[in-house]
Write a structure and sequence with these properties.
With about 450 residues, this protein is of the alpha+beta class. The protein is built from 11 helices and 29 strands. The strands form 6 sheets. It has a 7-stranded antiparallel β-sheet with strand order 7-6-3-4-5-9-8. The chain has a 6-stranded antiparallel beta barrel with strand order 10-11-12-15-14-13. Strands 17, 18, 19, 20, 21 and 22 form a 6-stranded antiparallel β-sheet that branches. It holds the Pfam family Trypsin_2.
Length: about 450
């Protein structure tokens, strides 16, 4: 029997607090010269209820190959690998983005591997959360809770941010409880840091510490401008360099997860690099920012749009970009099929082209495992014949053990019809015990039981 994880018990992270002796202090004046001092308090009273604590528990499973010498000693039936399980608990933050649906955004690394996710609301309630979907490459996860009287944050247009804009970070550092820090936007379009696969970070000097991951970065209007995700911490603490995933990027990913049950990554079909001083001088252009295109894939979205080798892409949908990495992150977090306007420099002249993004062919195995544990190892894709097609099955995987083979099309769960990935996930999420999948295989129909 599982023991429900408590927010309070999960907050014990081994930190030591030193109490200072009591000192008499004068109150900060509310006004100077008859003029009220500025305060963030009115804004925070409206926004802090939308930021939650995220407590997780689970089991880390590690596998190690047993040396042949040991297998020989213990006989031919000795196990080929040693499996170790280690329970873990963790604590992070999250942001309510839809009060009606109960949607909460956090970082993928906060909930990765968790068997139980518990949300601590601002008013003291603790609610169990359901994982809707994740995108490990951008470090975003979408959760859902069933609760009334929730407060959601309105999203700002993060593309409008400028260096020097004020920023406020809200989260749950070190399990101390909700904490607010303030600063400014220090830089935009940070990439190449090796933190995530897709990087296009907002940099801020608002203090972000362990436990702030998944929390909110807001502007002075209390609007969400980013999801706090990482810090530079040579000594283990905050040094004034923190990073947040832009709200527009988060919104693109969330929309795809809600609509399709997964992220359908957009693909432009180019290879390139950051524009350097040497390249700029060689091409006789003055700009120092952009993505230099050194290869265009045949029949790709870029090829069809007329993008050529040697082009320098300097903007996406009218917003300037600083690097090829920023271009890659923006494109990859837009959904497949999106129409995108690219501003480019070709032979010294400025041009604009519009491309319809293709769809990434990367494995959907991780998404299959999130739909149901016994589907792990399968690659799922919405079929034109109204269903979910199994495009591949890994040998020895749970999906293979369930009896699924390449080419099967899932068209139903028990008595519920299924015509896409979102419908399949919805039909499976509330099922208890064994589930019957209706399968079309060649010209026949059959049922497979998932246990």
């Amino acid at each position: 029997m599982k023991t429900k994880l408590s927010i309070l018990s999960a907050a014990i992270l081994g930190a030591t607090l030193t109490l200072a002796p009591a000192v008499s202090q004068a109150a900060i004046p509310l006004a100077v010269g008859g003029q009220e001092l500025p305060s963030l308090a009115p804004m925070l009273q409206k926004t802090t209820p939308a930021v939650v604590a995220v407590a997780v528990s689970g089991t880390h499973v590690s596998k190690q190959k047993v040396p042949d010498a040991f297998r020989y000693f213990f006989g031919p039936n000795a196990p080929r690998e040693q499996v170790q399980e280690r329970p873990f608990k963790g604590l992070g933050s999250g942001v309510i983005i839809d009060a009606k649906e109960g949607y909460i955004v956090t970082n993928n690394h906060v909930i990765e591997g968790a068997d139980e996710i518990l949300i601590g609301l601002h008013d003291g309630r603790e609610v169990e959360a359901k994982l809707i979907g994740t995108d490990a490459e951008s470090d975003i996860a979408l959760l859902q809770i069933k609760a009334k009287n929730l407060t959601a944050l309105k999203r700002a247009d993060s593309d409008e941010l400028q260096v020097g804009d004020f920023a406020v970070a809200i989260g749950n550092p070190f399990g101390l409880g909700q904490t607010v820090t303030s600063g400014i936007v220090s830089a935009m379009g940070r990439s190449g840091l090796g933190i995530e696969m897709l990087e296009n970070f907002i940099q801020t000097d608002a203090a972000i510490n362990s436990g702030n991951s998944g929390g909110a970065l807001v502007n002075l209007n209390g609007e969400l401008i980013g999801i706090n995700t990482a810090i530079v911490a040579p000594g283990g603490g905050n040094v004034g360099i923190g990073f947040a995933i832009p709200a527009n990027m988060v919104n693109n990913l969330v929309q795809q997860i809600v609509e399709h049950g997964e992220v359908r990554r957009g693909v432009l079909g180019v290879m390139g690099q950051d524009l350097t001083n040497e390249l700029a001088k060689g091409f006789g252009i003055e700009t120092q920012h952009g993505g230099f295109i050194n290869e265009v894939m045949p029949d790709s979205a870029a090829d069809k749009a007329g993008i050529k080798v040697g082009d320098i892409i300097v903007s996406v949908n009218g917003r300037s970009i600083k690097s090829f990495q920023e271009l890659r992150a923006k494109v990859a977090t837009m959904g497949a099929g999106s129409k995108v306007e690219f501003g480019l420099i070709r032979d010294g002249d400025e041009e604009t082209v519009t491309a319809t993004l293709g769809e990434s062919t990367q494995s959907a195995e991780a998404a299959a495992g999130a739909v149901h544990p016994m589907l792990q190892g399968a690659k799922l894709e919405t079929s034109d014949s109204s269903g979910v097609e199994i495009t591949d099955v890994a040998q020895g995987s749970p999906a293979a053990a369930s009896g699924l083979i390449k080419g099967d099309v899932i068209v139903g769960v028990n008595r519920t019809k299924v015509n896409n990935l979102k419908a399949l996930k919805s039909a499976l999420e509330d099922q208890k015990g064994s589930v019957a999948l209706k399968i079309k295989r060649d010209n026949t129909s059959l049922y497979l039981i998932l246990r």
